[in-house]
Amino acid sequence: MKRRAFITGAAAGIAGVAASSLPKPAIAQGKRQLKMVTTWPKNFPGLGTGAQRAADRITEMSDGQLEVKLFAAGELVPAFESFDAVSNGTADMYHGAEYYWQGKSKAFNFFAAVPFGLTATEQNAWVYYGGGQELWDELSAGFKIKPFMAGNTGVQMGGWFNKEINGLEDYKGLKIRMPGLGGEVLRKIGAAAVSLPGGEIFPSLQSGAIDATEWVGPWNDLAFGFYKVTKYYYYPGFHEPGTTLSSGVNLDVWNSLSKTQQSIITNAFAAENSHLLAEFNARNGNSLDTLINKHNVVLRKFSDEVMAAIGKASGEVVKEAAAGDAMTKKVYDSFIAARTKSIAWSKISDQAYWNARLLRFKYG
Q1: How far apart are CA 292 and CA 335, in angstroms?
Q2: What domains does the chain contain, in order, with CATH numbers?
Q3: Which run of H or of E encompasses 145?
Q4: CB 262 within 8 A of CB 131
Q5: From its phi and psi, is residue 148 left (phi > 0), alpha (psi between -120 and 50) or beta?
Q6: φ, ψ for residue 177 (rounded to 5)?
Q7: What is the DSSP pairing of strand 32-38 with strand 66-71?
């Protein structure tokens, strides 16, 4: 063999060995695309962008091995069919709010918001450390879903009305958009509550199909432009004191993932649960100022008499929901115990501090 040929052949052999030892392309290593469907309009501030941020975070944290592609409401399935799409495997995960699934079980309401229920921090305490997650897992497993907290709006506003609300009689026959158990409370006091996905609210309010609506809070309400068709903006929102947004992953998909991939998804949703609450709290104040001072929205506070009557009706509705089935009763018992403890602690912590901060003294 000639020397030149030998060297060339050897070099080629060494290059071949080196090439075989290099990492294979990601697609050959099991790169996987997961479809996330949402109940939110595309790129909607907070709700839609929070879902996108969670999807992007999973993709980035997994170094692209899990590529989450987001489909807004109506792009793959209608908003309220997101849960079924994940349950039956049409999609891999959803981002929404659990009270949209109360037709499956009233227990789902407790993992989003119930009237006069838990605030965002109290909900986190219950789900993360009070047994809530275990109950949620048990409930959702019946529908082949693994659930997670994936955001929070904080305390919501009472809603937009085309007339003043001075007493319970003003709710009689009022056509108002309010989902979940909050809607059932309003029906109990005489209102005609309906559940509509976000994209249908403005045209329904504009056409007169509904007389009032709640949505989220100043940031999202400004984006939807409700001030263009009604001016009375009420607070506080009894129905959603700290609304948890959620994601559910198809259980077969979840079980097929490695422990590392499961950890990435778990932590990505936990991060978004914190970040989205911070974003809502940061943006609501400026948005409220814009609504009042630029768009001349009339801000009103529900009277104590109205809130007390709604509170009584709320307690009855939540208790009635618990009587529906054994699983809901188990969730209800755990939730009520957490609520009792939270009220006792917040009375001498957060609530006491907030009251003290409102005292008349010079600061700064």
Answers
A1: 36
A2: 27-152+242-282 (3.40.190.170)
A3: strand 145-152
A4: no
A5: beta
A6: -85, 115
A7: parallel
Determine the Cα–Cα distance for residues 215 and 179; give it in Å rounded to an integer.
Answer: 10
Instruction: Please provide the size of the chain in residues.
Output: 364
**One digit per residue, pLDDT tens: the chain, 364 residues?**
434 443 344 444 444 444 444 444 444 367 999 999 999 999 999 999 999 999 999 999 999 999 999 999 999 999 999 999 999 999 999 999 999 999 999 999 999 999 999 999 999 999 999 999 999 999 999 999 999 999 999 999 999 999 999 999 999 999 999 988 999 999 999 999 999 988 899 999 999 999 999 999 999 999 999 999 999 999 999 999 999 999 999 999 999 999 999 999 999 999 999 999 999 999 999 999 999 999 999 999 999 999 999 999 999 999 999 999 999 999 999 999 999 999 999 999 999 999 999 999 999 9
Q: Which residues lie across from 34 on neighbouring strands?
A: 68
Q: Are 34 and 66 contacting, i.e. CB atoms less than 8 angstroms apart? A: yes
Of 114, 107, 141, the C-alpha closest to 323 is 107
Question: Tokens for 165?
Answer: 């609300």
Pairs from 221-224 (Cβ < 8 Å, separation ≥ 24)? 221/157, 221/160, 221/287, 221/291, 222/287, 222/290, 222/291, 223/44, 223/45, 224/198
Nearest to 159, CA basis, from 212, 95, 91:
212
Radius of gyration of the chain, Cα coordinates, nearest whole angstrom: 25
CA separation, residue 36 to residues 71, 131, 192, 275, 339 (Å): 6, 27, 33, 19, 32
Spatial distance between the Cα atoms of 218 and 230, rounded to a whole number of angstroms: 14
- Give the list of residues 6+ apart from residue 214 with CB closer than 8 angstroms, or none: 156, 157, 158, 159, 160, 176, 177, 178, 182, 237, 239, 240
Distance, in Å, from the CA atom of 198 to the CA atom of 26, rounded to the nearest integer, reads 38
Upstream peptide bond of 236 is cis (omega within 30 degrees of 0):
yes
Q: Are 211 and 61 in contact (CB under 8 A)?
A: no
